Amino acid sequence: MAHPYRRRSRRKVCRFCVNPELPLDYKHPEVLGQFLSERAKIIPSRISGNCAHHQRLLSVEIKRARNVALLPFTRLP
């Protein structure tokens, strides 16, 4: 039996699997920026809901966008 105060939440779905037209490319920092925290860290898949395949591609594209200065490496307080 589940704990009475335990919250049952819906399983998050991968946004890139649901919408294949969503660009997963380093040239679209507005899309990639949605997967960065306020400190410019990559949000993990357990929070964002991305599948493992798209999370790996996302991290590679974020790192590429950082190297060509489209996304920040860090955001200072």
Description of the structure:
The chain is mainly alpha-helical. The protein has a domain of 53 residues: Ribosomal protein S18 (30s Ribosomal Protein S18, Irregular). 36% of the residues lie in helices and 0% in strands.
Write down the secondary-structure element order: HHHH
The helicity comes to: 25-40%
Question: What is the residue-mean pLDDT, rounded to a whole number?
Answer: 91
The rounded distance between the terminal residues' Cα atoms is 44 Å
Per DSSP, the total helix count is 4
Range of strand content: under 5%
So, CATH architecture of the domain at 15-67?
Answer: Irregular
Low-confidence stretches: none
CATH class of the domain at 15-67: Few Secondary Structures
Major sheet, described briefly? none
- Overall body shape: globular
Radius of gyration: 15 Å
CATH domain topology of the domain at 15-67: 30s Ribosomal Protein S18
Which structural class do the helices and strands define?
mainly alpha
Number of strands: 0
CATH homologous superfamily caption of the domain at 15-67:
Ribosomal protein S18
Structure summarized in a few sentences:
This protein is mainly α and 77 residues long.
Sequence-ordered SSE layout with sheet pairings:
Elements: H1 15-18, H2 29-32, H3 45-48, H4 52-67
What tags apply to this protein structure?
single chain; 77 residues; mainly alpha; 30s Ribosomal Protein S18
